[in-house]
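in:
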């Protein structure tokens, strides 16, 4: 697997690539703007050029570079104001990713917010997401960037806990050449998909293959889980220190079906990225 980590963009967005290279990443993920704000100053021409130049410089070492959207965006929201804001923010995310020549934009499907009627709430939420993505695709015709729906832990009214949620969204997308999936190991474990033993691992990915299909799978987020299986808790832990444990990651890393895919860490880290260095070392020690 092309292992890497989420990299900060402080001091210039191109620095994310240099940071990744500096700690031995083979792929990285970035936010192209603050992940906790709706708006951002437009990218400057020189920032875009410097980024693309740096990307080219390291293109044999670091690829792909994944963009991840802001956490605020919720295209499943029944509230018009939130939905509209989310739609506009998503358009900006797509524009920025395309300008930076990034092929993939990872996105959390969203929360339908209907606690009283989770079933119909989820169905409506799924339809809203698909409608939004179809409209976004129309507005960005000719773009290369693909939206990758991420598997979720299922906290609150989160859509994407079950593989079926993502499959249903994908089924409703008109231009399905621009929709993919990101499998987050922590989220899906929290959602009830076990990968700790060979038997459980095989069952989980047989299910993924039959419900979504491996042709949709673009990237893994490699995170251990603070919470136990099926607790719906979205809290990432360092590799081997959580409830998944090294055995699960060993199965994943030695699965030849995924050897060409990106696998980026989203585990806690300090400024010096020492934790990423350690987690990458642990992961690489698990190859047979
Ligand atoms: Zn994510
Ligand atoms: Mn993730
Ligand atoms: Mn998470």
């Amino acid at each position: 697997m092309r292992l890497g980590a989420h990299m900060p963009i402080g001091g210039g967005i191109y620095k994310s690539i240099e940071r990744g290279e500096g700690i031995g990443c083979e792929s990285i993920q970035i936010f192209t703007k603050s992940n906790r704000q709706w708006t951002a100053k437009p990218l400057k021409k020189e920032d875009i050029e410097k980024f693309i130049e740096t990307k080219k410089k390291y293109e044999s070492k670091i690829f792909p570079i994944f963009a991840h959207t802001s956490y605020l965006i919720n295209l499943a929201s029944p509230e018009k104001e939130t939905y509209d804001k989310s739609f506009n923010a998503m358009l900006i995310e797509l524009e920025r990713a395309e300008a930076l020549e990034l092929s993939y934009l990872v996105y959390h499907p969203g929360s339908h917010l209907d606690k009283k009627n989770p079933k119909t709430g989820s169905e409506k939420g799924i339809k809203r997401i698909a409608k939004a993505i179809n409209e976004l695709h129309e507005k960005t015709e000719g773009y290369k960037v693909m939206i990758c729906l991420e598997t979720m832990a299922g906290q609150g009214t989160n859509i994407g806990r079950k593989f079926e949620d993502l499959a249903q969204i994908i089924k409703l997308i008109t231009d399905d050449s621009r929709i993919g999936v990101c499998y987050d190991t922590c989220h899906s474990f929290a959602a009830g998909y076990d990968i700790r033993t060979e038997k459980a691992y095989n069952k989980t990915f047989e299910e993924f293959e039959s419900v979504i299909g491996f042709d949709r799978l673009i990237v893994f987020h490699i995170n251990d889980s603070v919470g136990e299986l099926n607790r719906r808790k979205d809290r990432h832990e360092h590799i081997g220190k959580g409830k998944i444990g090294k055995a699960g990651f060993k199965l994943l890393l030695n699965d030849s079906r995924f050897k060409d895919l990106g696998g980026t860490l989203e585990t806690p880290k300090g400024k010096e990225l020492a934790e990423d260095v350690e987690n990458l070392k642990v992961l690489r020690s698990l190859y047979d």
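note: The CA atoms of residues 8 and 274 lie 13 Å apart.
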